[in-house]
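can u do me a favor
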């Protein structure tokens, strides 16, 4: 496997569209070939999500069941107590997750919120899992507080192209998002950023979204590609489903533009067939949300996911702790935790 990350950035929109336009099997072959140069084939990362603060969000993101602007029947909940988070993380670990991601329905957290979330991050880290949080817009000091607590990743999606963005959200700008990603990077955190497919955007928008992500310097380490979960009560409840092959193409283009990133097949999996999952893995997806629930909507049952991955000969990617345990066993002594590239080797 190749460990060095070579990029042909900056990507132009024409170059990205040319990749999208490849014949389907050529595109998949190219994506899969590149995937194998950077990652162990037939391994998928398991992340589990937990909503630590649910609903009543002041933002107006048209896709989101948690926005206070829409009536989705969701019950709002205050910030979850630390003990409950600890229990959920331990449960996720017991189920095989190696990354635990906590999401909050905030426009931007207050400093006191960040201090509470930092305590949650410490608990997740104490379990030997990778930690990720998604709390909305973050300033530089808040990003530093989370980094000091040992946070690994911050998730903040660009969601779509800068051109289509205004059709979806009016309460914060594309530039606000980039500023948050800049603060996250400055604090030394790893970036998890992706978007949503199926909101009525064009292929050009999808290409531009991926181009924006790939041209970040450095690009995100983790790229969630969500298919819209069309929730009744949101303005996008009746959005037309995107052609499944176009979704697979988006995964493949993400893999080609960001070869060293974990590309996560994120929301929308309950609407996808087993065959569609297999195509997404072939296109270079190597991470999923695992567990019966995303933040507020359903995810496939773990038993179904386990069976599907077994049928496909795909194993769970070892997490940081598994690798340490194996090294200790091999050497009969305690060793330092491996770096991420060692863990992936
Ligand atoms: N409030 C924070 C924020 O927006 O940055 C964090 C939580 S928010 C729910 C995280 C991401 O979930 C959004 O940026 C969006 O990409 C994704 N998301 C939310 N609702 C979705 C839906 N109905 N379908 C697909 N993805 C969705
Ligand atoms: C991401 O890109 N997708 C996740 C995670 N990051 C936080 C969230 C998906 C949410 C789907 C709708 C819901 O369950 O509320
Ligand atoms: Fe709020 Fe995040 Fe939902 Fe937008 S996506 S409404 S910011 S929870």
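np, heres the sequence
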């Amino acid at each position: 496997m190749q460990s060095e990350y070579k990029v042909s950035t900056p990507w132009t929109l024409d170059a990205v569209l040319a990749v999208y336009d490849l014949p389907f099997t050529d595109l998949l072959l190219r994506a899969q070939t590149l995937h194998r140069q950077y990652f162990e084939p037939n391994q998928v990362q398991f992340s589990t999500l937990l909503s630590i603060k649910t609903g009543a969000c002041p933002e107006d993101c048209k896709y989101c069941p948690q926005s206070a602007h829409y009536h989705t029947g969701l019950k709002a909940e205050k910030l979850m107590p630390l003990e409950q988070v600890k229990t959920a993380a331990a449960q996720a670990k017991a189920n095989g997750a190696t990354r635990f991601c906590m999401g909050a329905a905030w426009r931007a957290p207050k400093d006191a919120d960040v201090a509470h979330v930092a305590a949650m991050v410490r608990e997740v880290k104490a379990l030997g899992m990778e930690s990720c949080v998604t709390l909305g817009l973050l300033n530089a000091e808040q990003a530093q507080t989370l980094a000091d607590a040992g946070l690994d990743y911050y998730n903040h999606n660009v969601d779509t192209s800068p051109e289509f963005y205004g059709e979806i959200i009016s309460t914060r700008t594309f530039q606000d998002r980039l500023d948050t990603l800049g603060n996250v990077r400055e604090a030394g955190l790893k970036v998890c950023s992706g978007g949503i497919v199926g909101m009525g955007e064009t292929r050009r928008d999808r290409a531009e979204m991926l181009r924006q992500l790939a041209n970040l310097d450095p690009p995100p380490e983790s790229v969630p590609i969500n298919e819209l979960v069309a929730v009744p009560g949101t303005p996008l409840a009746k959005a037309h489903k995107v052609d499944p092959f176009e979704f697979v193409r988006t995964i493949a283009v993400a893999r080609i533009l960001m070869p060293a990133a974990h590309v996560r097949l994120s929301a929308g999996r309950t609407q996808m067939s087993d065959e569609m999952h297999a195509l997404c893995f072939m296109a270079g997806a190597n991470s999923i949300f695992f567990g019966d629930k995303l933040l507020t909507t359903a995810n496939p049952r773990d038993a179904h996911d386990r069976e599907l991955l077994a049928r496909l000969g795909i194993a769970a990617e070892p997490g940081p702790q598994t690798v340490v345990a194996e090294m200790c066993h091999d050497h009969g002594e305690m060793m330092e935790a491996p770096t991420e590239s060692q863990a992936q080797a």
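The first strand starts at residue 43 and ends at 53. hope that helps!!
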